[in-house]
Design brief:
Blueprint (H helix, E strand, L loop, with lengths): L24 H19 L6 H8 L6 H6 L7 E2 L2 E2 L1 H25 L29 H28 L4 H24 L12 H12 L7 H28 L6 H9 L9 H24 L8 H4 L47 E2 L3 E2 L1 H7 L3 E2 L2 E2 L1 H23 L8 H7 L24 H27 L5 H24 L10 H14 L7 H26 L8 H6 L3 H14 L7 H23 L7 H7 L19
Antiparallel strand pairs: 1-2, 3-6, 4-5
Length: about 650
């Protein structure tokens, strides 16, 4: 096949992706040649096997060792798995660490149940010395050293693969962000605290004890602001993954549906703005990496600079501007499915053409900074539609009830500045247990909570209807409505289903920042270490997995976007050089890969399973299971407690 085709593989009306900088000649030559593969794929009846496409890219050279020393004798593949020098180092140290891991729980601990494995760090008294062979924590130290080397060299191997495919380095950057968490837990924090005994214990379920204990060791870890931000970013990542996966799935099998349908849909849902094809992947990359980096701060500060997260907030009421409270008084109280008829996208964004354009604004503007950041700067038009108006009205009523209840609180007493000062701790709580499921509790003893929650129920149900009708109007499948249904399952489990099963509204959380954190903490305390709840385990697995998939997908698309990989709907029909590189990266790194379509199925199911598993785990707590740790012991998944372990060493002096 010639590297210089006589005709362009692009269609007459198709423009190549815009690039921010000139592409080196050899890259442009490879890109043009790979486009010939795509063009040939489109013109013949049979699809060119991916193995043939792979052979086009699978060639020696381009590694870091080759750049440093002029050659690389270890530049090789085993099947579809790229090994290389860094791969040899990574697998070697991973294997050594695995041997010590299995030796610890099979020989030292004397159990064949890997779920009960416990590999503790050395005692605090050893300080920062290396433990002698056979001493407590020696195997932990060896495993940590081997794992650290394995992680770093695996990331360097990813860099080599990026160099071979001439793509950006966003994927290894995202990977090293995750590795930084391991380094923070096992190296930086123990070094800062003066002992390896402050490291993270290893074991599938044993580490759950550490996660629980570290929270109470520093007095309610949920008050840690970096923990709150990191968890918020994890859930935001899961939401982004559900939104993106649902949108692409909804468009991929619809005749005549293009990316414009998706843009029009989102402008009617997210305040008149659709982030665009490259923008969503940039935000995915940034959000996933930020969640991990902020989580590092969350744990590093605990025990090094902050010893009580409850006391940490004592600075808040002493801030100087609260002294002006005296002047702040206020007086208040696949294509097999056809689209639903002809879709006129222009009509959906013109005023007065139907229910979809019943309330909003018709104007549109272009915001330069958003265009540069996300590749799409168009803001507007935006319409709420009938269901959106109902949702906004009900939600506004909820906020009004909450704010008026806050204002009459004795700590605020109609003072705007005191309202701001006390806002983190203010709450309206459900009726006390004595009222059970009564709907007529006194207003300031839970009646306001019942009213606010009722309108909140109407708001989220109306917004679900808005999402459903908007998808139908724009010719998309209703996958986002299905994903939102999963989120509503968790929401109604918390606020409606579980309280009804337990016979009291008091089992639901209050409306307020501190109230929600206290409820989360209390659920774990009341039911014997909630971390041993297997559905909570699954929920956290899918939560972290969603962040991982979001980061991997976003980083991969950003790294290959100069080849047009972000044009996902087109790439599903005819794979171009960007999609080839994206798939080959993971094929060589992991031995398998998703494609432009299947990655969005992964996105959809990972995100919705997070909330479904969480809802089931919560639903069982207090109704079927009253002590999750006792259940874990009976199920033989909890590590056997060491009777000789000195827990007193962790008591703060």
């Amino acid at each position: 096949m010639s590297d210089q085709p006589s005709e362009s593989p692009l269609q007459a009306d198709e423009e190549p992706p815009v690039r921010a900088q000139p592409v080196p000649p050899i890259v442009a030559q490879e890109e043009l040649a790979s486009k010939v593969l795509a063009a040939a794929d489109a013109q013949v009846a049979e699809v060119i096997p991916f193995s043939i496409v792979e052979e086009f890219y699978k060639r020696p050279g381009g590694t870091m060792l080759a750049a440093w020393f002029g050659g690389d004798a270890l530049d090789f593949w085993i099947g579809r798995f790229y090994v290389g020098f860094w791969g040899i180092l990574s697998t070697t140290f991973a294997s050594i660490g695995a041997i010590f891991y299995f030796y610890q729980f099979l020989v030292v601990e004397g159990t064949v149940n890997i779920l009960q494995a416990r590999i503790d760090p050395p005692p605090l008294s050893i300080g920062l010395r290396l433990q002698s062979p056979g001493g407590p924590g020696f195997n932990w130290q060896i495993i940590v050293i081997c794992a650290t080397i394995a992680f770093i060299t695996w990331g360097l191997r990813e860099i080599d693969i990026c160099r071979k495919l001439r793509m950006g380095y966003e994927v290894p950057i995202c990977f090293f962000a995750v590795v930084s968490s391991w380094i923070t837990l096992q190296w930086l924090r123990p070094l800062a605290m003066g002992s390896w005994g402050n490291g993270f214990p290893l074991g599938i379920t044993h580490h759950l004890d550490w996660v629980s204990n570290i929270g109470y060791q520093y007095f309610n870890f949920f008050y840690n602001p970096f923990h709150a931000v990191a968890i918020s970013l994890l859930f935001f990542s899961t939401m982004l993954l559900a939104m993106h996966g649902s949108a692409i799935r909804s468009a991929m099998n619809q005749p005549g549906v293009t990316v414009r349908n998706i843009d029009v849909f989102w402008r009617g849902i997210t305040g008149g703005y659709s982030i665009g094809e490259i923008g969503i992947h940039r935000v995915a990359f940034w959000t996933a990496a930020s969640a991990v980096l902020i989580a590092n701060l969350c744990i590093f500060l605990s025990g090094t600079l902050v010893h009580s997260w409850t006391s940490f907030w004592s600075f808040w009421p002493r801030l100087p501007w609260w002294s002006f409270a005296g002047v702040g008084a206020i007086v208040v109280a696949g294509r097999g499915v056809a689209a639903d008829g002809d879709i006129n996208l222009d009509e959906l964004e013109e005023p007065g053409t139907g229910n979809e354009t019943s309330f909003g604004f018709a104007g549109q503007t272009n915001i330069g900074i958003m265009d540069r950041l996300f590749g799409n700067g168009q803001l507007g038009p935006f319409y709420l539609g009938i269901w959106g108006i109902i949702a906004l009205g009900c939600f506004s009523t909820t906020i009004l009830i909450i704010l008026t209840s806050f204002i009459v609180d004795p700590r605020v007493h109609y003072n705007a500045i005191l309202l701001l000062r006390e806002l983190p701790s203010l709450a309206i709580n459900p009726p006390a247990a004595q009222y059970k499921l009564a709907f007529l509790a006194p207003w300031l003893q839970g009646g306001n909570w019942l009213a606010a929650t009722f309108f909140l129920h109407l708001a989220v149900l109306s917004w679900w209807a808005r999402i459903y009708t908007r998808a139908r109007a724009t010719g998309l499948e209703r996958n986002l409505a299905r994903a939102f249904s999963a989120a509503l399952f968790l929401y109604f489990t918390i606020y409606l289903i579980r309280p009804i099963l337990l016979g009291a509204w008091s089992e639901a959380p209050g409306h307020g920042m501190k109230a929600m954190l206290d409820w989360t903490n209390n659920v774990s305390v009341r039911y014997g270490n909630f971390y041993y709840n297997p559905f909570h385990m699954l929920s956290i697995f899918f939560l972290l997995g969603s962040t991982m998939v979001l980061g991997m997908h976003g980083a991969t698309i950003v790294a290959t976007s100069r080849y047009g990989s972000e044009l996902e709907l087109k790439e599903m029909e005819i794979e171009g050089p960007g999609t080839h590189r994206a798939q080959l990266f993971w094929r060589w790194a992991m031995g398998f890969n998703a494609n432009a379509a299947s990655i969005h199925y992964w996105a959809f199911w990972m995100s919705i399973m997070c909330v479904i598993a969480g809802a089931i785990g919560l639903l069982l707590s207090g109704t079927v299971i009253h002590n999750w740790y006792a259940w874990a012991q009976q199920a033989h998944i909890a590590a056997t407690p060491d009777p000789n372990y000195d827990w007193s060493q962790f008591i703060q002096k």
